[in-house]
């Protein structure tokens, strides 16, 4: 039967997980999610049959992992967890490949906590919990920033004194595990797009746009931190830095207060004054909700245009992520004004969440992403004996 691989994707209020077989091509045995940590935590679990959902007691990520381990233990059937793969949002300027999470590596990764406060501390906390649960397992970190490590220089640097670039103040880009999976799936299913110019939209609670040429990330809407780019559930997206200077001078806001505002009170929540949840906003007749949706759509459309300019054209557009995969309304609003890029929506296909949702010269696809599979593949590769 072989050994098992566990993947963990820990965020500020949720922990996603999946259990896989080992070997060169890991197969998923079970997957699930603990969400609502800190408020009303619930547990979703699927192993072959229908998804099971129940309320649980999990005040933090450590307790969430305890619930997960209790559920998957029967599925181990006496097999050891040989490797645990972790999504790590920020890998810094040097890490471009999956890495064993030794104590020295973890200490270095902790220095990036201020750059991704919604994710990085929880990512690392989950690693420590997994080490306690599986002390003999190989712990592998897979970095959201790694996919973007080959950007052209002009897409990486900011126009501030160059010494800061040399210190690591640069555009990193995020959602790399998602883009890695989607780009490979697209070329596998549509080989005619191999080597082509692809714009990918990962739209969810966190959201970004990525320009890919010949399978390589050329530019990302996210930059030094996951705050940049298009607006998100509670994050601001692109912002004139003069606004922060203004708030510091006129409101006396501290760095801590600004951080809280930008990460927790902005985006769809800040614009609408109602909710951070796109489903709630789409269903609402309130003007604030309509304004938030309209602004989100506008910024995504604008960023797609910018990425098309970066690539000197576009051969395909892809939507993924929670909003990108499940909201026909948002997708349609985005693409119905992209005719200048050869995009013509197929409204019926879009309403049905079909894989291809366009009729024009430039194809538009909806592809479910699977970050956990990317992580499992990396762990499986690390477990293979060296040749």
Task: Give a written overview of the molecule.
The protein is an alpha/beta fold. The chain has two domains: 4-143, Nucleotidyltransferase, domain 5 (2-Layer Sandwich); 192-366, 2-Layer Sandwich (Nucleotidyltransferase, domain 5). It is built from 14 helices and 13 strands. The strands form two sheets. Strands 5-4-3-2-1-6-8-7 form an eight-stranded mixed β-sheet, sandwiched between helices. A five-stranded mixed β-sheet has the order 11-10-9-12-13, sandwiched between helices. Strand 3 (28-35) and strand 4 (42-46) form a beta hairpin. The radius of gyration is 21 Å and the shape is globular.
**What is the share of helical residues?**
25-40%
Question: Which architecture name of the largest domain does CATH use?
Answer: 2-Layer Sandwich
Give the uncertain stretches in residue-range form: none
Radius of gyration: 21 Å
Beta-strand content estimate? 15-25%
H/E series? EEEEEHEEHHEHHEEEHHHHHEHHHEH
How many domain regions? 2
Q: CATH-wise, what's the superfamily of the largest domain?
A: ATPase, nucleotide binding domain
